[in-house]
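User: quick one
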Amino acid sequence: MNRHHYGLILAGGRGTRFWPRSRKRSAKQVLNVVGDRSLIQATVDRLAPVIPPERLWILTNEHLRDTILEQLPEIPPNQVLAEPAQRNTAPAIGLAAHILHSIDADAIMGVFPSDHVVAKPAVYRSVLKSALKGAARGHLMVVGIQPRWPETGYGYIEFPRGTLPGAAGPVPVLRFHEKPELRKAKRYVAAGHFYWNSGMFFWRADVLLEQLRRHLPRTAAILASLPRFGEDSFAEKLKEAFPLCDNISIDFAVMERADKVSGVPAGDFGWNDVGSWNAVYELLPRDAGGNVVGQDTICLDARNNLVDAPGKVVALLGVNGLIVVDTPDALLVASRDCAQRVGEILKTLEQRNREDLL
Amino acid sequence: MNRHHYGLILAGGRGTRFWPRSRKRSAKQVLNVVGDRSLIQATVDRLAPVIPPERLWILTNEHLRDTILEQLPEIPPNQVLAEPAQRNTAPAIGLAAHILHSIDADAIMGVFPSDHVVAKPAVYRSVLKSALKGAARGHLMVVGIQPRWPETGYGYIEFPRGTLPGAAGPVPVLRFHEKPELRKAKRYVAAGHFYWNSGMFFWRADVLLEQLRRHLPRTAAILASLPRFGEDSFAEKLKEAFPLCDNISIDFAVMERADKVSGVPAGDFGWNDVGSWNAVYELLPRDAGGNVVGQDTICLDARNNLVDAPGKVVALLGVNGLIVVDTPDALLVASRDCAQRVGEILKTLEQRNREDLL
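Assistant: Done. Structure below.
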């Protein structure tokens, strides 16, 4: 372990596609949808051998901070920050870089989503180490994941033709590509040197701050105007300043514009972004009927269903390919094919002024 | 109204096909599955203009008696009896005939299921009056319902060829037919003089008792040995004697064996025995998407579903032809095609010793 390695876990998302289990105060990252530990707990667990909890920082929102503090007592509470407003990833990452650099001028930071699954943590950690090495040498590093299918929901990273997964050392990134249409996605996968953008980034804090000053000067200036982290006025000033930052992703703001952007073309480390209830179905073990259900569920002529209904007996009769999620005040019954569309329900709830269910 | 007219409402059934809404203590007849009033309340309501509540008697079981007393304050509480054991319809009807005859030697009684729906109560009451007239003349009367489809779940009554619905006066019943196979049911419907057996019977109490003595002598003797209704020892003696009665239906015990069995071949009075959740779906008004749901249900690409989930927001997404019934401790998600099989779930619950959910 290197004492200059820090981790920033981004945990401000809502994960609306996990409604009704997910709510503002219990977003996807704090749910244990695929195991005994919540997704953010699992994130901290798998990072620990490389970056220990005392050097992990979490950016989240006011709704989730208490739950995260409770779930992660090993992380110093003052390192769990609630963003005063939702401002996409660039200001959040910039803020963390600002703080880390003020603490340790040699800080090297990794940025991690809080709500993904990694089935092969040992492979994952070797990827981290490659990425941290590249970052130490001044590169802006991104982790690419070898695509397993022509996914249209992810951005792609274009490495030089012939790049092989697991390549040693930083590989230059030629270009970032937005979420493609299916035809394009198929071309990317067939070409072989296009990788999924994992959302994991690594760099020296000073390098990132320099890039922000160049490409996002207003936000950089706002962050530079903040008092030193730890001073009494920090929280108050942050509350004033943060909402003024540009609402933009780090991909747009920096990665697509900067020089010396490199990546780790990673092989299979069992990555899954758990994008919907259907991903949960795919990740969990099924019974002989293809059902992912607890022992309190009765299946009669029921196949390939997912049931999440703690404390309730559920009977499935003659149904196929359903997602059933029960909570005390709301119940979802959806076709697995439509799992990506669960977020649409929240729009209807908003129209009906059911803030209590969001 | 004739002061010798009495009604016996049979309310001892469980209605397992309405699980999880129906339980031992909240059987189908006390549920308001198709309106604001429970099925037994609606039964009393529609009888009232012909047989007032003070001359209605109810036979039920220990689990349901309190709920029925609560739902029907207009019925004298001592006329709501809990059978000490479940013994099919012959002993229950015999007991009521015994009591009514001891109160009124000229009693004419109608026997009514407690869990059916009648959409045209005015037509229904004219049928009742015809049946009561036939009963007054000494006939054992049964109400036949003109079949609307070749149902295999009902028994059939065979009237003489050419019998028309709404015929005046008692029409002799040639034969009772058990639940037929589909081919036979189709023949019955095509023939035109076969009617569904409604389970509604009418007779003088003394005539029925005479028939019981002839065809079910042991049960008749047991009932005759009871003290007079109203005496202190009645309940205690009933508790001892009733379980000794023959476990047999009135159809088998009397109607299929007796002479002078007649019927009313009724036209359409909007009868429905509400045999399953699918019947509830058929009975209730649907929205444009064919869904029978409350205003707390959100339907996105969801069609032809039934939702019964009081106090809970339900979201249906991309599903079709489902029955969703939510209760605090159990949830059913079934295909409407399988509504008849809901009872099978109770067998599994019994095997799992979940008496709490029965």
